[in-house]
Write a structure and sequence with these properties.
Its EC number is 3.6.1.23. This enzyme is involved in nucleotide metabolism: it produces dUMP, the immediate precursor of thymidine nucleotides and it decreases the intracellular concentration of dUTP so that uracil cannot be incorporated into DNA. Keywords: Hydrolase, Magnesium, Metal-binding, Nucleotide metabolism. This protein is mostly beta strands and 151 residues long. It has one domain: Deoxyuridine triphosphatase (dUTPase) (Deoxyuridine 5'-Triphosphate Nucleotidohydrolase, Chain A, Distorted Sandwich). Helices cover 5% and strands 33% of the residues. It contains 1 helix and 11 strands, in the order E-E-E-E-E-E-H-E-E-E-E-E. The strands form 4 sheets. The protein has a 4-stranded antiparallel beta sheet, with no helix packed on it. Strands 4-9-7 form a 3-stranded antiparallel beta sheet. The radius of gyration is 19 Å and the shape is globular.
Amino acid sequence: MNSIKVKIAYVRKDKAPKLPQYATPGAAGVDLQASLDQELTIEPGQIVKIPTGLAIELPHAGVGAFVFARSGLASKYGLALANGVGVIDSDYRGEILVAVINQGSEPFVVKDGDRIAQMVFLPVFIGEFYLADQLDETGRGCGGFGSTGVS
């Protein structure tokens, strides 16, 4: 796997810093942990922003950090990211907050240190847009939303 240097600042001065950890040597995403003063109960249908206590500095504009749900929390408890995927731009310096929604039927309790999401670093390309009279033809054309079938 490729690696990049990511500078981290811990924004909570009242707690000992804890660097993010990869769960296994082959993990693509690094776990983000909740940084809480007390337990947080997320009711069904409720959206909350969970602080991580971390701020990062990406090495250059060609890299972005993307926050994804943890598969176990989503499949077992219905805890998903409220915005689908969190995008951390290379020039953002604030605390990483994870916006989650409880799509389950039961309240979900988050404790300090719980692994609540995962962050993946990916290359980012800046689009250089230009206006065209028409787009090139393809076999698919304008077909979308299930136009290619399910089997």
